[in-house]
Amino acid sequence: MRIDSSTTAAAILPLVGGPANVTSVAHCMTRLRLGLADPSRADRAALRAVPGVLGLVMDDGACQVVLGPGAVTAVTGAFERLLAEAPGAPPAGTPATAPPPAPPVSPPVSPSGAGGSGPKVLLRRIAAVFLPLIPALVGCGILAGVNGLLLNAGLLPGLTPALTAVASGFMALLPVFIGYNTAKEFGGTPVLGGAVAAIVVHPGVAKVTAFGVALSPGQGGVLGALAAALLATRVEKWCRARVPRTLDVLLTPTLTVLVAGLGTLYGLMYAAGTVSAAVGAAANWLLATTGAFAGLVLGGLFLPLVTLGLHQALIPVHATLIEQQGYTVLLPVLAMAGAGQVGAAVAVYVRLRPGAPLRTTIRSALPAGLLGVGEPLVYGVSLPLGRPFLTACAGGAAGGAFVGFFAMLGDRVGATAIGPSGWALFPLLAGNRGLGETAGIYAGGLLTGYAVGFAATYAFGGVSAAVAAAAALDPRGS
User: Fold this and answer.
1) Sequence ranges of the domains in the chain
2) Alpha-carbon distance 94 to 25, whole Å?
3) What is the pTM of this model?
4) Which CATH architecture has domain 5-96?
5) What torsion, rounded to 10 degrees, do the Cα atoms 26, 32, 34, 40 define?
6) Known catalytic residue at 28
7) pLDDT tens for each residue of 247-288
């Protein structure tokens, strides 16, 4: 049954503490991500019971409501409308802490509502920088893949230059968007973050020498843009705390761009370029040297990362590899976790009695799972049942080991964009071999993940436990 987005949003809002407790609203492909001023006011049990909610992740002031693909976009829009209509609320989409023209009285709070400190909070905030960019990364990546096929086949020569421009425009200016989002997330003025990050891709940097080496446009890539915007935000905050109010509107932007811009040119671009090269070399070495083992570990641990919401922190790594090599070799390996999840869910389906309510859940969630969106299966099937979640991880580990084994043989399988996985990743595949061989290795990994996930769930005690748990979860029986 289709869930009405307005009804779902209206049910969620009071359960997270009401409009006054919500500091920010965002969403990714499957989750409504809310920043909460007081996380203790959220009623976790009631949130999980809302029709249409597949799961809930609470982490250091952030509330992630799992709704699934498609539904999350509609519910987010309805939720933002409810906030905008609340008495005394700012207009929807207005940052909770846009920097004022005068020095702030108190330190800004990030739009993600992330309080506290530590590695987990930092990773979540960095992920928040990249999450809004995923739709454009997916769309441009698919267009680039289609354009590559047309070029290789010699088809539509009059159209391919236009497709190249359409697919490449966003990627060429990606550092600007990253800088904008970084400043917004960390409490600076977004346009100043974008302005400083734009230096990274400006052609004029080729005339600048740092550490005795001439810079090149784009050097440092997404990491350089992220560092540049962070520096700009720090400089801006320093200026706003010290520049007289009468001069703030003139001096603060000027000093921010000047100081952060020079720091980017004469330090950050060179350092970020070195780090980016190291990331690429490390990823290639890891798969070429320990591919099967690395794939086993990465594919097996990715589902737990998803349940914690930390998988998005890998986006900067993927983006760096795509910018540097044209594709990310890590995403196809990590995508195997979804294959293991599908195999485990099918095993549970087969062993459940016909007519069991959980079978309906699996049937409705399987299409999304096959397309790489595994959270409906994770939160609706395997995680509540316990053991099938572990056997799904085993399937992901086997699929990752399969793809990693071929990487050891010199056959790299990569993705030209981030976001999709499962079958949806086929249009984005690329590698150092022909497309047919690359797709064949990836398909083999998927089949391995399906098979091992199914067999492990079917044979090693997971299904019997799942059947008992399903009966306990649903009073109508299984």
Assistant:
1) 5-96, 130-283, 326-473
2) 10
3) 0.80
4) 2-Layer Sandwich (3.30)
5) 180
6) yes
7) 999 999 999 999 999 999 999 999 999 999 999 999 989 999
